[in-house]
Amino acid sequence: MSGLMAGKRGLIMGLANDKSLAWGIAKKLREHGAELAFSYQGEALAKRVRPLAEQLDSDFVFECDVSDMDALDDAFARLQERWETLDFVVHAIGFSDKNELRGKYLDTSLDNFLMTMNISAYSLVAVARRAAAMMPEGGNILTLTYYGAEKVIPHYNVMGVAKAALETSVQYLANDLGPDNIRINALSAGPIKTLAASGIGDFRYILKWNELNSPLRRNVTIDDVGGSGLYLLSDLSSGVTGEVHHVDAGYHVVGMKQEDAPDI
Ligand code: NAD
């Protein structure tokens, strides 16, 4: 254990199972000495999240639906009861109706547009405000985004629009929170097979395309995400805020199909 995170306490939001990006980050943070709390959505997930938290020496696990402002208030009150202050938060949350993560963006319904924006983008603002109140000496917030915010990825649709709002929120929040020594960054991960990703139309094709066409000619893993998450949440990145950091095997720099990539 290098102790990079020794003495630091943080909340991990968005752990669903051991495939979650949040799990890759949480493991790395614990390995480096962080003390962790976990929030999950819906009692059904409790039986998956509790044993995972235990593996990382935590019994501090509670429910929080981020679309419910009272639930968010309760969650942060609960945190404050046990920990007076907080050093970091990982926001690894996104949701949209999977029926609208296929076909055309043109067909997005108003209800799903608002719900997707609320859960996947506004929740970061709501979380950041409550977390900042527990960070009197400064702190660090990390969210997860995807390249579909920057370029059109077929089927990603309204989620891409929500991720664009999320990335811009990171910039505005960085400016608001910077004077209080609170940093906030986004980690833009390449495609990884998770519960959330399985809702995206033709996700297997996206995975294969990235594997064949990224500079590293592979997909990233939750351990790759965990390593970069550790960097962004530790003092190693002390001068970095408002950044969207790509962990995608370099895919975002490529402008066309690789010559050696077979047709798929
Ligand atoms: P996941 O399914 O493991 O995690 C998504 C989490 O969001 C789940 O724990 C779910 O319970 C939570 N969630 C959904 N609605 C919620 C709500 N109302 N309140 C509280 N929690 C809620 O999938 P993941 O891929 O690990 O997703 C984590 C983050 O990473 C998401 O923001 C996702 O968009 C982002 N991301 C994923 C990929 C990928 O390819 N898997 C790539 C880039 C970014």
TrEMBL record:
<feature type="active site" description="Proton acceptor">
    <location>
        <position position="146"/>
    </location>
</feature>
<keyword id="KW-0443">Lipid metabolism</keyword>
<comment type="pathway">
    <text>Lipid metabolism; fatty acid biosynthesis.</text>
</comment>
<feature type="binding site">
    <location>
        <position position="163"/>
    </location>
    <ligand>
        <name>NAD(+)</name>
    </ligand>
</feature>
<keyword id="KW-0444">Lipid biosynthesis</keyword>
<dbReference type="Pfam" id="PF13561">
    <property type="entry name" value="adh_short_C2"/>
</dbReference>
<dbReference type="GO" id="GO:0004318">
    <property type="term" value="F:enoyl-[acyl-carrier-protein] reductase (NADH) activity"/>
</dbReference>
<protein>
    <recommendedName>
        <fullName>Enoyl-[acyl-carrier-protein] reductase [NADH]</fullName>
        <ecNumber>1.3.1.9</ecNumber>
    </recommendedName>
</protein>
<feature type="binding site">
    <location>
        <position position="41"/>
    </location>
    <ligand>
        <name>NAD(+)</name>
    </ligand>
</feature>
<keyword id="KW-0275">Fatty acid biosynthesis</keyword>
<feature type="binding site">
    <location>
        <begin position="192"/>
        <end position="196"/>
    </location>
    <ligand>
        <name>NAD(+)</name>
    </ligand>
</feature>
<dbReference type="InterPro" id="IPR002347">
    <property type="entry name" value="SDR_fam"/>
</dbReference>
<comment type="similarity">
    <text>Belongs to the short-chain dehydrogenases/reductases (SDR) family. FabI subfamily.</text>
</comment>
<feature type="binding site">
    <location>
        <position position="93"/>
    </location>
    <ligand>
        <name>NAD(+)</name>
    </ligand>
</feature>
<dbReference type="GO" id="GO:0006633">
    <property type="term" value="P:fatty acid biosynthetic process"/>
</dbReference>
<feature type="binding site">
    <location>
        <begin position="65"/>
        <end position="66"/>
    </location>
    <ligand>
        <name>NAD(+)</name>
    </ligand>
</feature>
<feature type="binding site">
    <location>
        <position position="14"/>
    </location>
    <ligand>
        <name>NAD(+)</name>
    </ligand>
</feature>
<keyword id="KW-0520">NAD</keyword>
<keyword id="KW-0560">Oxidoreductase</keyword>
<keyword id="KW-0276">Fatty acid metabolism</keyword>
<dbReference type="InterPro" id="IPR014358">
    <property type="entry name" value="Enoyl-ACP_Rdtase_NADH"/>
</dbReference>
<feature type="active site" description="Proton acceptor">
    <location>
        <position position="156"/>
    </location>
</feature>
<dbReference type="InterPro" id="IPR036291">
    <property type="entry name" value="NAD(P)-bd_dom_sf"/>
</dbReference>
